[in-house]
């Protein structure tokens, strides 16, 4: 009986600890959905994330302004390039990557909104303890508001809300996340990309993570 009381006290003590800002695992594989409040964009993507090598691979299908699209992009931040890959036509578009790599983490200036259990706390395995943070980021043009939800244990991304004057609210929901890289070869450009030349157009801004969607 005393052991049971001690276990309950320890459990309550763990839940009562103040959530800390955190950084997600450096290697992740999973999927996410993206949608906008104005209903112009709805997409589903599979991703591979490598914070150590500063690499991201996205394979996405969705609709934008009622037009269906398929996208396969490889972002290599250390090289400062992005490959837009078309496996069907075996063609490759190579462009400059203009933004710095930003790891999946809760920024230092983020404020805690609260800690909740998704699902149920009535029994083991019925719920997920998550923390929601909010803040504001300075952008090249103006600022952006965000709200990010991550798991209390592991700092695995659950969802993000991102707002700019240009795009409005963008909602991203993560699912089927796995720690580690299921297929490390995802970060190697296909052979037909070997001879791809860097495309630079006058007046064109370098590609960023968000503009690649």
Separate helix tally: 1
Radius of gyration: 20 Å
Q: Flag low-confidence runs.
A: 1-16, 202-213
**Terminal Cα separation, in Å?**
56 Å
Strand order of the largest sheet: 7-8-9-10-11-1-2-3-4-5-6-12
Helix-strand topology string: HEEEEEEEEEEEE
Provide the structure class. Answer: mainly beta
**Proportion of residues in β-strands:** over 45%
**What is the helix content?**
under 10%
Question: Could you describe the 3D structure shown?
Answer:
There is one protein chain. With 213 residues, this protein is mostly beta strands. It has one helix at residues 2-16, and strands spanning 27-36, 41-50, 55-64, 67-76, 81-86, 91-96, 111-119, 127-138, 143-151, 157-164, 168-179, 198-199. It has a twelve-stranded mixed beta sheet, with no helix packed on it. The model is unreliable at 1-16 and 202-213 (pLDDT under 50).
Quick structural summary:
Helix content is 7%, strand content 49%.
Q: How are the elements arranged and paired?
A:
Blueprint: H1 2-16, E1 27-36, E2 41-50, E3 55-64, E4 67-76, E5 81-86, E6 91-96, E7 111-119, E8 127-138, E9 143-151, E10 157-164, E11 168-179, E12 198-199
Parallel strand pairs: 6-12
Antiparallel strand pairs: 1-2, 1-11, 2-3, 3-4, 4-5, 5-6, 7-8, 8-9, 9-10, 10-11
Question: What descriptive keywords fit this protein?
Answer:
213 residues; 12-stranded mixed beta sheet; disordered C terminus; 1 helix; disordered N terminus; 12 strands; mainly beta
